[in-house]
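On clarity, I found the account of how folds are encoded harder to follow than it need be. Since the whole study asks how a given chain folds, the encoding of that fold should be made plain. The format is easy to grasp once an entry is in front of the reader. For illustration, here is how one protein appears when written out as sequence plus structure tokens.
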Amino acid sequence: MITIKNLNFKYSGTNNYALRNINLEIKEGELAVIIGSIGSGKSTLAKCINGLIPHFVNGIMSGEVEVAGIKTADIDISDISKIVGMVLENPLTQLTGYGTTVEEEIAFGLENLGLIREEMKNRINSVLKLLDIEKIRYKDPFDISGGQQQRVVLASVLAMKPKILVLDDPTSQLDPSGAEEVFEELKKLKGKQTIILITQKMNIIRELASRVIVMSKGKIVKIGKPIEVLLDYKLLKRNNIEVPAETELLYKMNYNKKIMEMLKV
């Protein structure tokens, strides 16, 4: 579903590459989680997948990115957006301001697809229910909380039914209960849709991810199963990534090394 070969990217006006020799393949239906410290290249990689790089963001890019068998460099970003749905960290960057209600905000993208009214209505009702935002359907998207705005953005993207869903820290403005609700919905989508999730919330990775991709200084330094990555104390510490409390405890008790050896068997 997603194939990346020898990808390098440097933003205009900078000396260092934000991405260096990225090679990655994400299978259809996989839910891959990308973790890494600030500046590791996570968001830049997401922009390469959704076509913002090279079509919108200025810089020097080499290598190839394919989504659903199509090279992103060869098609317009408007066509890529029909394949790849993106949810950014700040919802205000994605709210269109179209109309005056949440319902109309979600309808904007659907109208651009040329869907019949009945299909639009069904999709809108479905995502409003999915994300538990039916009660704000007639409110102004700019008069609701940041957490609610993020859900509206996610609803707008899901309503478009993209083949690939990329989420860049989508729960950053949600309270713990709101974040948990979103992650619960992502669990339901697991296996049904290809999802790439960038997150700092280590506690949800184990049960949510198919694989975990660890990035540092523009490179992929590790790809593994959730438990394999989460228990690798030295890997997380070395790359300035939050170490789960359980991993910290196991390491101090000298169990961490034994467990890692067992996982390699």
